[in-house]
Amino acid sequence: MSGPADWWRDAVVYQVYVRSFADSDGDGVGDLPGITARLPHLRDLGVDAVWITPFYTSPQHDHGYDVSDYCDVDPLFGTLADADTLLARAHELGLRVIVDLVPNHTSSQHPWFVEALAAEPGSPARARYLFRTGRGPGGSQPPNNWLSVFGGPAWSRVGETDQWYLHLFDSTQPDLDWRNPEVGDMFAGVLRFWLARGVDGFRVDVAHGLFKEESLRDQERAEVAGGQEGANEGAREMVERTVADEPMWDQPEVHEVYRRWHDILDEAGPDRMAVAEAWTQTPESMARFVRPDELDQAFNFSWLLADWSAAAFADVVTGTLAAVDSVGAAPTWVLSNHDVVRHPTRYGGGPRGLARARAATLTMLALPGSSYLYQGEELGLEQVEVSSEHRQDPSWFRTGEPGRDGCRVPMPWGGQTPPFDFGPAGSSPWIPQPEGWAGLTVEAQAGDPGSTLEFYRAALAARREHARGLGAEVEVRLDAGDVLELRRGPLTVVLNCGDTPTALPQGEVLLSSAGLRSEGGATYLPADAAAWLRSAAVQPSSAEL
Ligand code: NOJ
Ligand code: MG
């Protein structure tokens, strides 16, 4: 692929949740040929790269984040040949491809874990995972008090024995022991396998989790109201973590792994990259993952966690830029993904939620670094209330909480009724789509200048034209009321988080997320909206041209 070797530093990356993007064979589940057929949508949208969630062999207990063969494609999604075709077609269209890597845990059906369960305590087969002796009489209690991110204890007992194994997620996702060199060697091979097939990069799942404090000591945590312990239960908690003592996350040893991976990526070519999914507690700890000899990027979840407030957004921008600057890395921004409530819904839902979502997106796209978009946000999709018989998120089964299925409803492409061209006519998507999505399909929105799809296309085009190459300096201003102004060279973005319209500063309006009003020589930006301006003040004068 042509382009700069560090293309990812300012890329817009589009996340495809494979089972919900496009279903070519009518089994109700999205697949690789489905993605390939829909790649022109991504080219027309104007993104630079696509990140595809796991499509490897998997029993699908956590929709592919439970891998039983890292070097093959699950038949549900296609074949290795389909993966090759997808890569080739994406590259033809000028799109880079990032694949997911799941190194913290395997599936419980991975041959290693099957072998471990059949082997004796203390055997080399068990030493690839974190088996420990339980506490209490007969070892009938878990070895420590850790909780699974999906709810309940982070340990499952091996039959009636005193042995337990650790799973920070579902019991079908046993954690590997990264202190065992066999584990690191296996993943070095997996990286090389996919790099040789031509992938441009990796999204590293649970990048902050691979090492646990060696003692596996209890976690110190406050009891919270209602008798529930800690803050790690349920996927919702992934965005609301308040636990400070985290012996299971973000241990210093993990960085050695990323130094090794850095070299493997380099060997494959100067333009291969990796982005860490690391829910660390501070911008500083996030920055450690992107030191010059480690991974290239880390998701910056602080943008997604921030409240709808100019002051909160200002803090995130300032804190993020300072943190990545300290290690010379490029920042990233993200508002939605397959683990969180879609951002129009987070911002209150309905027309107001959508207005705010568009404004937050436009603000994000003006910032230096790269932006990650989640499939369907370009259509303004909201979180869906999924009825309990259709829920599949393992956290639902472990906690009874609704979980993440509501942001994973299959994409509406065209037509008037489900499956909205997600799959062939008559097929039934794995989660039913709302009837009301007829007006939100790609087909319905394309060509309508007021639609969210056309807004995204225009915003991405404006980013290419006016924001790319502007440098990393951002002046952050918090003006009267709840208005944020971010200045990046000649580009200014104004975000109105307040309740009343605000007068825009001088400059040429390039784009706005909502209609503007002119009165008495001033132009007003409504509440819940953002606009990009090219500042008149820093335009070169005609004498300089
Ligand atoms: C983070 C992924 O984004 C999420 O979907 C998954 O459930 C967990 N990691 C466990 O792999
Ligand atoms: Mg299918």
Describe the structure in your own words.
The longest helix is centred in the middle third of the chain and has 17 residues. It is globular, with a radius of gyration of 24 Å. It is of the alpha/beta class. 1-deoxynojirimycin binds next to loops.
What's the gist of this structure?
This protein has 545 residues and is α/β, with parallel strands linked by helices. It contains 13 helices and 21 strands. Among the domains are: 111-166, Oligo-1,6-glucosidase, Domain 2 (Oligo-1,6-glucosidase, domain 2), CATH 3.90.400.10; 472-534, Immunoglobulin-like (Sandwich), CATH 2.60.40.
Largest sheet data: 8 strands, parallel
Average of the residue pLDDT scores? 94
Total DSSP E strands? 21
The name CATH uses for the topology of one domain is Immunoglobulin-like
Q: What ligand species are in this complex?
A: 1-deoxynojirimycin, magnesium ion
CATH architecture of one domain: Sandwich
Strand order in the largest sheet: 11-10-9-5-2-1-13-12
**Low-pLDDT ranges:** 224-241, 541-545
Given this structure, which CATH class of one domain is correct? Mainly Beta
> What percentage of the residues does DSSP assign to strands (E)?
15-25%
Q: Which structural class best describes the helix and strand composition?
A: alpha/beta
Calculate the terminal CA-CA distance, rounded to whole Å. 34 Å
Number of helices, where a helix is a run of at least 4 consecutive DSSP H or I residues? 13
| Cα radius of gyration in angstroms | 24 Å
**Broad shape:** globular
Quaternary class: single chain
Helix content: 25-40%
